[in-house]
Amino acid sequence: MSKDLFSKLKKNIKLFVQGATDFDRKSKSLLIKESHNEMDEFLLLCFGDLLGIPFPTSYYSLELLPLIAEDLDGWNNRMSGRLSVWQEKWADYDFDA
Amino acid sequence: MITFIGGKGGVGKTTCSAAYALKCAKSGEKTLLVSTDPAHSTSDIFSIKISDEITNILPNLDAIEISGAKESKLYMDKVRQSLKNVVSPIIIDQINKQIDAASISPGTEEAALFDKMVEIITERSTDYDKIVFDTAPTGHTLRLLALPELLGAWVETLIAKRKKSIILMSMANHSGNAEKEEIDKDPVLNILKNRFDKIEIAKNIITDSKKLNFIFVTNAEKLTIDETVKAVEILEKHGITVSEIIVNKILPENMTDEFWVSKKEQEQKYLELIKNSFKDKKISLLPLLQEDMKSDSIEIMADKLRE
User: Fold this and answer.
1) CA of B102 vs chain A CAs: smallest distance (Å)
2) Looking at the DSSP assignment, which residues form a beta bridge with residue B61?
3) Domain at B179, CATH number
């Protein structure tokens, strides 16, 4: 019991220090960015035909629509509004941070 | 046991399917005849209106006609229904457009038909001793049977991507540690996994020679034989067993007219070719009949197949 309490306390202190000093900000933003990239690829495989890439499987992705419809709009804008891949890659290095 | 009957357009697939199903029913097997051809001539052959519900037509013999167009409409209506309680009206509008676009895209009806066929196979195979599928012309059927492989790979990739994305997001939110339950909770992943399981079941049935075999219908003509040889090769490459070849429209003996005599000679030549091309398969011959295909002539055909 006390061991349980101790590990909980340890975890909370860790979280407090992390939060207060914001020390994993960079790794967190990297993770989020990578997660979004994966999700964009996922959406591309599901709804590529929205961008004019025909997929033989688009029939089966319809049933996912109600669940990911809210992400779809932003994704469509991101994909069709892409001006330069270089610019995007450049931003990954985050030099101004 | 599931039997697919296929062949080039116009060789008499529907006739042979009906005759084969009738033969099975007569020898005491409870049989379901499934017509997937959009032309739906099975109703005409048996002179009974067969619908998209299972209808009993003769003792031991039930039939059903399924259509890709109808099934895909049902599926899309279901998606539309579940949309209503999820998202905002603006997004609904956009999604309806997406659904409309999908309803005219090329693979849609095929996919819907395939789904329905898998549903019949998985839900009805315990009720019947034999399920006979009257398929669409060769090209369609080959694509249909290759679908599980294509779909399986696609769904697998989707599951991997979605999982990775969720794990990364979970790591970002829990200072580097992913929470497993966030993966289990995700509704999208659950739908995909369901789909994957169904595809696996279909794949296993299709490639299991104890559960499914293929009968090819051909005529004693050069082009048809060539196409049959090619199709059988492709099917066997996909692990699908072709057990029997039915040669339909065999000309009658004892013809006197010069034109038909030479036709008959040619036919003999092509029959030899068929026998040489398919040495390890059962070959059945069906005659060309004088009258149209009606229920009594189908019975003659069924008796011929029994020999």
Assistant:
1) 6
2) B31, B58
3) 3.40.50.300
